[in-house]
Amino acid sequence: MNPFIWLIEALIELITWIVIASAIMSWLVAFGVVNTRNQFIRVVVDTLFRLTEPMLRPIRRMLPNLGGVDISPVVLLLGLFFLREALRYYVWPYFY
């Protein structure tokens, strides 16, 4: 396998898990399960926000207002899954 293709797929996988962790952490904060006054939780939430917000902001601008429901992480995950499968289908056969 080409190392560049492997690196791209690994980055897609890492971004996928970061988006999932960010969505779960935002739910935990919204429902009051975790306390953001805790320094460690505040750092984790801020780090996840800073990592995912540049990818989610353009999607949020394009989506209609759904009354407080944010589906931008779902749209981003679908895009990442599509990109990974397109990479496997169109690019990998040429590198074997």
Short description:
By secondary structure, the protein is mainly α. 75% of the residues lie in helices and 0% in strands. The model has no long low-confidence stretch (mean pLDDT 91).
Description:
With 96 residues, the protein is mostly helical. It has one domain. 75% of the residues lie in helices and 0% in strands. It contains 3 helices and no strands. The model has no long low-confidence stretch (mean pLDDT 91).
Write the SSE topology.
Elements: H1 3-30, H2 39-62, H3 72-91
Helix pairs in contact: 1-2, 1-3, 2-3
Please give a handful of descriptors for the protein shown.
96 residues; mainly alpha; 75% helix; globular
Low-confidence stretches: none
Q: How much of the polypeptide forms β-strand, as a percent range? A: under 5%
Instruction: Write down the overall mean pLDDT.
Output: 91
Separate helix tally: 3
CA-based shape: globular
N to C succession of SSEs: HHH
- Can you count the beta strands? 0
**Largest sheet data:** none
List the domain count as a whole number. 1
Helix content: over 70%
- Coarse structural class: mainly alpha
Radius of gyration: 16 Å
| N-to-C CA distance | 7 Å
